[in-house]
User: Fold these one by one.
Assistant:
Number 1:
Amino acid sequence: MVEFRKVVKSYGNLDVLKAVDLAIDKGEIVFLIGPSGSGKSTLLRCINVLETIQSGDLIVDGLSAKGTSAEIRQIRLEAGMVFQQFNLFPHMTALENVMFGPLKVRRSGKVEAEAIARDLLAKVGLSERAGHYPSQLSGGQQQRVAIARSLAVRPKLMLFDEPTSALDPELRHEVLQVMRQLADEGMTMVVVTHEIGFARDVGSRLLFIDKGHILHDGDPKELLANPPSERLAGFLQHIR
Ligand code: ADP
Ligand code: MG
């Protein structure tokens, strides 16, 4: 589904991703952890071509991130992204936010778009909130709307960048619950998070990234129980 081949991403003379090689198969639930500034967000943003890479190759579902603008548009449709700050349209209701993708991007008719949106709001447990504006929803509810909005475009892959970091602890579980359900349904997911317990329970794979290198790549339970480096052990101690 995703293949990085010696990908270098830099800003000016700051190399953020340093010749990253990484292959992610369909259905994998990949968690990405690492210190602040290590390149986690940049790696995610490269996958849906919010960033362009300086060298190497990046292939998403057979499409090249260095390809034509049509190819890049297709990658962006296939890779849904959920951000730490929910990024909903404030002047649209929950329902309208979720209808936006089907209407504008998939060019569905209004009736079909509304049916898709109502289905997805039900899936994230928010049928009762369809007519509410973002400002009338809790953070956890807003993030669930944001997930529904991404899903409405029918992505093949979902990217999550610290989806619960802006939430109060008591609201996190409702978002994690929705993510767990998506994982159970077989969605391919790449998740940046500090929720180590969640990564252990739900992840099929854990990557530890440090200073633009993938230092470890393995089974979450094993890596977390027996960190193979001082670097990872220290990081885990720091965030626990
Ligand atoms: P993480 O998500 O792991 O905290 P990021 O991928 O956001 O890290 O950032 C990695 C490095 O790239 C940091 O040093 C950050 O300051 C730098 N960086 C990120 N985005 C930009 C940008 N648009 N311009 C310049 N430097 C950036
Ligand atoms: Mg980040």
Note: The radius of gyration is 18 Å.
Number 2:
Amino acid sequence: TIHSPADLAINGAEPAFAEPLHVGRPNIGDRAQFLRLVGEMFDRRWLSNNGPLVVEFEKRVADYLGVKHCIAMCNGTIALEIAIRALGMTGEVIIPSYTFVATAHALHWQGITPVFADIDPATHNLDPAAVQRMITSRTTGIIGVHLWGRPAPVYALQAIADEHGLQLLFDAAHAFGCSHGGKMIGSFGRAEVLSFHATKFFNTFEGGAVVTNDDELAQTARLMRNFGFAGFDNVIHPGTNGKMVEVCAAMGLTNLDYIDNVIGANRQNHEAYGRALAGISGVRLLGFDDSQCNNYQYVVMEVAGGSECRDAILTTLHAENVLARKYFWPGCHRMKPYRDLFPNAGVMLKCTEMVADRLIVLPTGTTLPEYAPELIAEVIRYTT
Ligand code: T4K
């Protein structure tokens, strides 16, 4: 327990946690079930290329989300790249700077310019008015990100896209299992992209998917995922290799059965952090709308004092073996590939810069010890 600053590891005391607590510790379902599925896979000798486990996984995900098509991929970034191409995006595409760098890279990698629009500091999601301001004659699309699993302003963005004839895609990497207005994330815009990376609330080791209700788009994405093959020797579309392998689908099927346990654990952790941090001045936990489904995967704390204060808390936490993160500092526009492209982007991105300087993401998930939120809050109390 921590009763004074002298009890902190940065002041020479033993770390509060003997083992490191990670953000993004993988949640793993029933191992026996996974090993059984892998055993059957070995017996079949069918390891990749649209095998039966991938087909079943796609159906289960589509049913869970209430969406017509799920096209499983090897990771979320390739799924983004394929969705972007299948939608015919070119020229400039508007995205938030405040996102994981993959959203920007998926465009830049394909010769498309990511144009960064500012966020709403209350939600950390794209500000529709800021998106409007960034539209030019070269703009072909918008990619909204449901950051921390909290829905982007889907209807306002759809209205802008309709008005200007733009494609609308959502990066739903954080939002598997989340809903908006009673509808699961997955069927907004023309398509949405999921990530099932190991650090995500639900994982397939590595993995991702394009989900959509659009038959034609689904067919194009399927072709692109497998070199454009429409049967043996018959290539009818340019494509790449974005396929999910069977062993990943086995993990996905296992973890789908475990999803409610993960949401339960995350929710409990989130509530425990909320109670423990409530009395500490200068820090605030970002809440969720409990009338919606959430996965509670990101425990996001804002530090009112800004970057110096935030970094001091991080240093203290790391000394205690709490490996909290400052996602998504400093914003894509300040990372080298984009800083060189847009040296003055910060002028337009005031809220992005403010939020990026204040933020700490705390560990959660099924492996977090029950006493951790309270102990972590005590560390923070004696740092602020
Ligand atoms: N769009 C958005 C909005 C995204 O957030 C992401 C991915 C994507 C698109 C792209 O999807 P993918 O192509 O990745 O499917 C991690 C993840 O690699 C990345 O998937 C994720 N977003 C991002 C938010 O976080 P890093 O660079 O922070 O990873 P790393 O290696 O620092 O790991 C994070 C923490 O998890 C560490 O504390 C260690 C722990 N960890 C990690 C792994 C892999 C474990 O305990 N066990 C593990 O197996 O990017």
Note: The pocket of T4K is lined by residues 22-26, 75-77, 99-100, 102-103, 145, 171, 173-174, 195, 197-199, 208, 323, 327 (CB under 6 Å).
